[in-house]
């Protein structure tokens, strides 16, 4: 029984910063999982924003490179997304996803946290 809980989303002005968190609970060893942060706006497909694999490799979508940082704390069973220099184009519902490094069917999603960038 595994649950994910995202937090940190808020209304923020352009140029501002937010730090999103995703806390896992239950019988899970986070170091066995690849982690991704996704975002979605109405009418568009879900977009992979950033990922950090169990082996440590990190990737970002081009539009957030240099502004966002993904990290993980396996002991705390928590993953983070630090977001800086936010613009209205970053407005979306942000989700975290955990996928087992080998057993890909073992995958978990959170409920999402809303980020709104507006004046």
Give a structural overview:
The chain has 119 residues and is an all-beta fold. Helix content is 0%, strand content 51%. The chain is built from no helices and 11 strands. It has strands at residues 3-7, 11-12, 18-25, 33-40, 47-52, 58-60, 68-73, 78-83, 92-100, 107-109, 113-117. Strands 2, 4, 5, 6, 9, 10 and 11 form a 7-stranded mixed beta sheet that branches. Strands 1-3-8-7 form a 4-stranded antiparallel beta sheet, with no helix packed on it. The mean pLDDT is 97.
Can you give me a brief rundown of this structure?
By secondary structure, the protein is mostly beta strands.
List key phrases describing it.
seven-stranded mixed β-sheet, single chain, mainly beta, 119 residues, 0% helix
Our Rg estimate from Cα atoms comes to 14 Å
What proportion of the residues is helical, as a percent range?
under 10%
Mean pLDDT: 97
Largest sheet: 7 strands, mixed
End-to-end separation:
41 Å
Apparent shape: globular
Q: What's the number of helices?
A: 0
Question: How many strands appear in the DSSP assignment?
Answer: 11
The computed structural class is: mainly beta
Q: Which stretches are poorly predicted, pLDDT < 50 over at least 5 residues?
A: none
Secondary-structure element order, N to C: EEEEEEEEEEE
Q: What fraction strand?
A: over 45%
């Amino acid at each position: 029984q595994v649950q994910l809980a995202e937090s940190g989303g808020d209304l923020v002005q352009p140029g501002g910063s937010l730090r999103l968190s995703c806390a896992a609970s239950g019988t899970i060893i986070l170091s066995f999982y690849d982690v991704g942060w996704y975002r979605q706006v109405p009418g568009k497909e879900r977009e992979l924003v950033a990922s950090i694999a169990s082996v440590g490799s990190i990737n970002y979508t081009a539009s957030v490179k240099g502004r966002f940082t993904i990290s993980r704390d396996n002991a705390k069973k928590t993953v983070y997304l630090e977001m800086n220099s936010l613009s209205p184009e970053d407005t979306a519902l942000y989700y975290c996803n955990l996928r087992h490094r080998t057993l890909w069917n073992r995958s978990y999603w959170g409920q999402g946290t809303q980020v709104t960038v507006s004046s």
